[in-house]
Amino acid sequence: MEARLSFVTLGVADLARATAFYRDVLQLPQIAMPDGAGVAFFELGHTWLSLYPRAALAADAGVADSPPAAFPGFTLAHNVRSAAEVDTLLAEVAARGGRIVKPAQDAFWGGRSGYFADADGFLWEVAWNPDFPHV
To answer: VOC domain spans which residues (predicted)?
Structure first.
């Protein structure tokens, strides 16, 4: 398999609410879709973020739509170019209505990070790692 991730699709409880969070709070560039498409897309460089109704996503995958766990076992991450940017970005997310889960703090691995949750509780880490080249 070629080393590439094309889409991250999040199964969301309320597509309109989730779309508003990513468009208005995180201010991600949304890809225009026809009215009633039932999906939202946001371009993240070479990877796209897709929002799709949770029950429909489960049906598409052929699995049962079970209640979401308090922690689904994964996080999404956004790396920034400096330690100060971690604080700045988390403050911007909070000011626009995002919920901070873990405030910015120095990390044991030598960087700085904090977490926020989207409208469905998916966790995003905002991190600066002095040894990570991809920002």
So the answer is: 4-129
Q: Is residue 70 part of a domain?
A: no
Q: What number is the average pLDDT over the span 55-80?
A: 88
Above 90 in pLDDT, residue 33? no
Q: Chain-wide mean pLDDT for the chain? A: 92
pLDDT digits (tens, 9 = 90+) for 13-26: 999 999 999 999 99
In a domain, 49, yes or no: yes
The 10 Å CB-count burial string (b at 16+, else e) for 88-98 is ebbeebeeeeb
Residue-number span of the structural domain to which 28 is assigned: 7-55
94 is a domain residue: yes
Task: Return the pLDDT at 34.
Answer: 85
Global pTM? 0.87
Domain harbouring 32, CATH code? 3.10.180.10
Query: Is residue 1 one of the residues assigned to a domain?
Result: no
**For the stretch 29-61, what's the b/e string if a residue is b when 16 or more beta carbons lie within 10 angstroms of its beta carbon?**
ebeeeeeeeeebbbeeeeeebbbbbbeebeeee
DSSP, res 38: S
Domains in the chain: how many in total?
Answer: 2
